[in-house]
Write a structure and sequence with these properties.
19% helix; 21 strands; single chain; 10-stranded mixed beta sheet
């Protein structure tokens, strides 16, 4: 049997000692450990249960270059596709901090925001135990790959009881130019007890026709009664693929309000792993997606209720047209003794084409008695009675279909609890649906 050479081991030409922060001994050792773990696990295949619906085989034939701090990119201004919001803006191009495009401005006392690479370089001992605290490299191959080749990322630390009035806008630009590129940013987000922050992420493809693969890992730590609004807008280019792993550690009384709007890209997988470790914590992981042409959008969620009296909610809606494919995998796990758990899942999909496909696998795994947990998933075509009603009011069929699709997805966006970002996502959705009409 011929050997298949992994694309991320074949042509990078980098060893851990060639990467930024190689002078930090523990970082180099951890990269070596991570690369060894990835070599054992390899790029995920559909033989793995968690990956049975998402096939990365097309990446195997691509000669990716690794984006590092010396990757030559010069951009005079932000692309027009980047939303214009009043926020502390921090920009990464292919995973590397770009000070010229960023506009962080004056930060409240008790807030540290900037490049993770710079933060580690300034105080390496601080991060030795923090980095990878929520990552199991023996299980997650792409998290191991991220650790092996990470060069930079977002560093956000908010002290106790600090409430940020303005959002933070993390802009991630993907630029390929004349070569395929891979990048592996690591974002470290830590909120102290009682802190409150709104974080908007915009993922935008810039230019170039070559393929790209972004492999981001975000480690989020929420202290007691901390509140994080985390909203992700994904508008990657048609030839871009991306994997995002977000880990969340939620302490007592903390709130995580998350929403992802997927509108672009080729193969996109967003994976969220949440551990609720404190009572009365509330986790909301919601979203919407529009997959047309041959786009593939995968949402994979696991929420572990490790203590009593906590809540989780996952509501997703998707529209699939042409040969678009959607995946929704969600598991709510309730540990023994975690009585009073309220865990809810709901996924709804509209299929606008006979060639569109949806794979949904909601799961509950419960080891406690006094719980309120439920899951549901529906998929189907547009309601013919609703179409008939609109047409009977003088609206032509094409316009009627567009109105029903818009109403279906806009209802999902209404779950966003930050008014300005809710309005922004409604506008982005309108633009996308206008293009697709």
């Amino acid at each position: 049997m011929s050997e298949v050479i992994d694309p991320f081991l074949r042509g990078f030409g980098y060893s851990p000692v060639d990467l930024p922060l190689a002078q930090v001994e523990w970082m180099t050792n951890r990269r070596i450990e991570a690369k060894n773990a990835y070599e054992r696990l390899g790029l995920p295949t559909i033989r793995l249960e968690d990956w049975k619906f998402t096939n990365l085989k097309n990446l195997r034939n691509v000669d990716f270059s690794l984006a590092t701090e010396d990757f030559s990119i010069s951009m005079a201004a932000l692309p027009k596709a980047v939303p214009n919001v009043d926020a502390h803006r921090i920009v990464f191009v292919n995973g590397i901090f770009d000070a010229e495009l960023s506009a962080i401005g004056d930060l409240p006392t008790g807030v540290k925001l900037g490049s993770l690479a710079e933060a580690i370089e300034a105080d390496p001992d601080k991060f030795e135990n923090e980095l990878n605290a929520s990552i199991n490299m023996d299980v997650s191959a792409l998290a191991a790959l991220n650790t092996a080749y990470l060069a930079d990322g977002l560093y956000l630390e908010v002290d106790r009881a600090v409430v940020m009035e303005k959002p933070i806008h993390l802009v991630s630009l993907t630029y390929t130019g004349d070569e395929a590129v891979s990048f592996h940013p690591r974002h470290s987000i830590r909120l102290g007890n009682g802190a409150a922050v709104t974080l908007l992420e915009s993922h935008v493809g810039v230019s170039g026709e070559m393929q790209s693969f972004g492999n981001a890992v975000s480690e989020i730590q929420l202290g007691r009664d901390a509140n994080l609004g985390h909203y992700i807008l994904q508008k990657e280019a048609d030839h871009s693929s991306a994997y995002g792993l977000t880990t969340i550690k939620a302490d007592k009384g903390s709130v995580y309000d998350g929403f992802t709007l997927n509108l672009g890209g080729q193969i996109i997988r967003n994976e969220t792993l949440c551990d609720i470790d404190g009572e009365h914590a509330e986790i909301r992981i919601n979203g919407a997606y529009h997959a047309d042409v041959k786009r593939h959008h995968d949402t994979t969620i696991r929420v572990n209720h490790n203590v009593p009296n906590s809540k989780s909610l996952a509501v997703f809606k998707g529209v699939l047209g042409d040969q678009g494919r959607g995946v929704f995998q969600a598991k709510t796990y309730v540990e023994r003794g975690a009585d009073g758990t309220d865990g809810q899942q709901l996924h709804k999909a509209l299929l606008l084409s006979d060639k569109a496909e949806i794979n949904a696998k909601p799961e509950l795994e419960i080891y406690a008695d006094d719980v309120k947990c439920a899951h549901g998933s529906t998929s189907g075509a547009l309601d013919q009675m609703q179409l008939f009603y609109l047409e009977s009011r003088g609206i032509d069929e094409e316009r009627a279909r567009a109105l029903l699709v818009q109403a279906f997805l806009h209802e999902a966006v209404d779950h966003i609890r930050h008014q300005e970002i809710c309005e922004l996502f409604h506008a982005e959705l309108e633009n996308k649906l206008g293009e697709s009409a």
